[in-house]
Amino acid sequence: MTTTLEPRAIGRDLARRDGGAKVRGTAVYADETPVADPLFCRIVQATVARGRVTEVDTADASALDGVVAVLTTADAERLASTDDAELAVLQGTGIGFRGQIVAAVLAGTDEVAREAADLVRVTYAEEEHDARLSADRDDLYTPESVNPTYPPDTAEGDMAAAMAEAPVTLDRTYTTPMHHNNPMEPHATTALWEPREGDGGHLTLWDSTQGVHPVRQTVTQIFGLEPEQVRVICPFVGGGFGSKGTPHANVVMAALAARAVPGRPVRLALTRQQMFSLAGYRTPTIQRMQLAAERDGRLRGIAIDVVEQTSRIKEFAEQTGVPTRNMYAAPNRRTTHRLAALDVPVPSWMRAPGECPGMFGPEVAMDELATALGLDPVELRIRNEPEVAPETGKPFSSRNLVACLREGAERFGWAGRDHRPGVRLEDGWWVGTGVAASVYPTMRMPKSTATVTYDGGRYVARIGAADLGTGAWTVLPQIAADALGAPVEDVDVLIGDTDHPEASVAGGSSGTTTWGSALVEAVREFRDKYGDAPQDGDAASGSVKPNPAEEEYVMSAFGAQFAEVRVHTDTGEVRVPRLYGVFAAGRIVNPRLARSQFLGAMTMGLGMALHEQSLLDPRTGHVVNHDLAEYHVPANADVDDLQAHWIDEDDPYVNAMGSKGVGEIGIVGTAAAVANAAWHATGVRLRDLPVTLDRVLPGR
Q1: Alpha-carbon span 144 to 319, nearest angstrom
Q2: Is 664 designated active site?
Q3: pLDDT band, residue 6 (cuts 50/70/90)
Q4: What are phi and psi of 610, to 5 degrees?
Q5: Cα(452)–Cα(483) distance, integer angstroms
Q6: What are phi and psi of 59, to 5 degrees?
Q7: For residue range 453-484, what is the model confidence (pLDDT) as tens digits?
């Protein structure tokens, strides 16, 4: 068991330390890095989904005044490693998906670079492609694992027998579409290659990333460089939602371009349209749900069989079925994952990968089961609360889902709800309410190190963490101050640079728990050495240590979302005037920032429910709504009464802070709650996202 620290700075409602710089516009992002005489890089993308490049005509582009270089597969540097096909930029003539980088232009201004890129003429030998996902394909296959290393399939008991023998069963299919992350700041890199005698040269990348050390690790492998030859800097990130959690082709392209013009910095920022093919996305999913239940609602069996897509050139398997493994008690269980390898861009992480799409089918299915049984949907979930983790039999370190459901029901005014659909009509609007549960695993990465130094009456900690807008600049000083027993105003934490000690990626809601654990270990070492009276220059370091409790307990955060939906009787317009969430996420390090994360995730879940859908045309392999004019995300008018609350949860097993992570759980159950409320309002059961008027109206 780990020892939980007594709170001093932890729990304080502190404002963001970086807030002033961001509001005043003085926070420096990757594409704004002050460098002398930069070149601008614009990429040329493939216009076919499969085939090969047969010719690249660069004459007109090269002749344009201000163009310094045009890079193609014929003259680009040969990379030391091309094992990762997504990152093997300009290394061959093969085309794996529409939007792949086939050339790049360097010019003295961004305007000239853009014009020159338009002048590059590429000829292709086009081949027949396949970009259509369906569950009845005969080439679906089972991946070796699903993200990150879960087994793809699990089974216990006899699910077929449960479905045959149970008095009440449900067998339905649910779908979620392709989604794109779309942070406000596009993926951007400023790169500088400096040849040096004796050490082979040095590469500096000012990159918009969720992990400076993971970027350095990738770049050194691809270019055959030593770690000391590469520095990655990222003080601020304008959002990422997972898309910046792993390097994509744009980073390699920026480094390639910089190495082609030694000593000259290069800026490369993807356009909004380019991000739809080069920055990852959430794979579409097809989820077949089976539930077998007694008449009192207790589950005999639960199964989810998932079909999703990956890219033919690189596999990514979303762990969509994993949350079902431990969510509800049932003696018979099955989860499976099958992939279709298509000629499409490479999918990747998007906020709450696996749990976010993977809880849509199960939570709508539970709502359908409650209707079939004549039970309150909240009560049905409570009746199937497991005493231990169903998959392993291990105890939960803490599990307060029932408390979240009950408090959420009370705050929302759930009591007395008429469970019949389509019976509440107010001023021309059908009105309904819905609920869904949410879960997200509590993860702590194995590698992160921090240092602490005493300097002029202040403590300065260093760790190469990244703040993608979640508040690391603020909460890490709170954790360090708490461990030091010092005023938080006397503590600084420097992050976002590979010159600082190694840190894990900001992903999986693991940043605070991982980096905070490293800070606590560094502070303990510091206090063991110097006590409460350090001298200037005193320093110590510490790294994340194994937590034996991680082997003994299942650790997760839980939550419940409640939604009110109104559907206009004539137009089918769908509105969500109320959306409440109650969460059990361990100790809340900073209530102000935690609430911001919960609300932001719920808003993103609202977008998933009502708006977001990347429309890929299978005839071309192209996402046609590839900008923010056509890819709709929630605006202020879509969000009215939005509330986030939490249970005071003391979990002594997860880490020294008692934290669980708050960045992702808020999105997990939101779309299902909205879909369930839309059914309650109209009587139309929608099993395919998003919930739009064209899907509601035909059923009325």
Answers
A1: 12
A2: yes
A3: very low
A4: -110, -30
A5: 11
A6: -60, -50
A7: 999 899 999 999 999 999 999 999 999 999 99
| Residue of 115, 318, 564, 664 marked active site | 664
Encoded tokens for 688: 């395919």
Q: CA 440, 592, 209 angle in degrees (round to 5)?
A: 60
Tell me: the pLDDT tens digits for 300-327?
999 999 999 999 999 999 999 999 999 9
Q: CATH second-level architecture of 19-28+445-546?
A: 2-Layer Sandwich (3.30)
pTM for this prediction: 0.96
| C-beta separation of 339 from 310 below 8 A | yes
What is the domain partition of the chain in residue ranges? 19-28+445-546, 33-128+182-278, 154-180+282-443+552-699
Q: What does DSSP assign to residue 537? A: T
- Residue pLDDT, tens place only, 249-277: 999 999 999 999 999 999 999 999 999 99
Q: pLDDT band at 129, cuts 50/70/90?
A: very high
- Report the C-alpha gap between 176 and 436 in whole angstroms: 16
Which residues lie closer than 8 Å to 275 by C-beta, 6 or more apart? 180, 181, 182, 186, 187, 243
Whether the ω angle into residue 148 lies within 30 degrees of 0, i.e. cis, is yes
User: Nearest CA to 338 among 111, 143, 197, 137?
Assistant: 143
Multiple choice CATH, 154-180+282-443+552-699, 3.40.50.670, 3.40.50.300, 3.30.365.10, 3.50.40.10: 3.30.365.10
SS3 per residue for 280-311: CCECCEEEEEEEEECCCCCEEEEEEEEEEEEE
Q: Which CATH architecture has domain 33-128+182-278?
A: 2-Layer Sandwich (3.30)
3-state secondary structure (DSSP) of residue 399: coil
Tokens, residue 212: 């400076």
- Distance, CA of 309 to CA of 338 (rounded, Å): 8
Instruction: Decide if 604 contacts 667 (C-beta within 8 A).
Output: yes
Whether the CB-CB separation of 113 and 256 falls below 8 Å is answered with no
Alpha carbon separation from 220 to 88, 118, 255 (Å, rounded): 14, 32, 11
Mapped onto helix, strand or coil, the DSSP state of residue 51 is strand
SS3 276: helix
CA distance 539 to 523: 9
